[in-house]
Amino acid sequence: MRIVVLTGAGISAESGVPTFRDADGLWEGHRVEDVATPEAYVADPVLVHEFYDARRAALAGVVPNPAHRALARLEEALGDDLLVVTQNIDDLHERAGSTRVLHMHGELLKAWCLACEGRHPWDGPMGGDPACPGCGAPALRPDVVWFGEIPYEMDRILDSLGRADLFVSIGTSGAVYPAAGFVQQAARHGVRTLELNLQPSEGTAWFREARHGPAGVLVPAWVEDLLGPAAD
Ligand code: APR
Known about the structure:
- The chain is an alpha/beta fold and 232 residues long.
- The chain has 9 helices and 11 strands.
- Strand 2 and strand 3 form a beta hairpin.
- The two termini are 24 Å apart.
């Protein structure tokens, strides 16, 4: 069985990574949409770096939760027949053991040099204009996809969706396109669809089946439905 899983901020919530739209959706008085845009970066790069530097630093204090681990277990069983597409810029899927992960909104732990176009692993602060490890220019930005930019890997994602038997959406509000439209794409191809989310997402009506509760409970239970109880 070929499965495409889409994850959003809700899968990392129980690890202590804040979601975007659950509480007041503000970061120090700014709407996320006001710091996560190319225009915001041009207008106030110091503020934008501060925002991402804080999120990058916070990653050191969090660990994957049972939902991430259950998806890694599923990959062990399915291999190439499982693709995890994540909107998250954290590295918790990889730390749980998943290897077939597409970060459609980029990665916090990567820098993109606007001078040489190189991409580099990055775990420290980016504010203060550090030099690009490739060309030395002080022109690094976070390698994340901002509002108004085109998400990464769309061709591979849509191709995998069209060939899947099951599409599962985990921990995402369904507010941000194109990810919010994947369920409709899947349904159009006759792919079975399942939502696992704390509460009904904005697109919940498009799913053939929806289960509501915390990802740390729902995802391991769903994987057990498929594979049987975990050995440990
Ligand atoms: N388990 C499951 N779902 C949860 C949990 C949990 N423990 N906690 C919260 N959720 C759900 C919320 O109910 C909500 O529907 O996760 C969803 C999180 O929604 P958002 O905060 O909107 O996050 P996401 O859907 O990933 O946002 C999409 O928006 O700001 C951009 O680029 C950013 O990738 C992000 C995109």
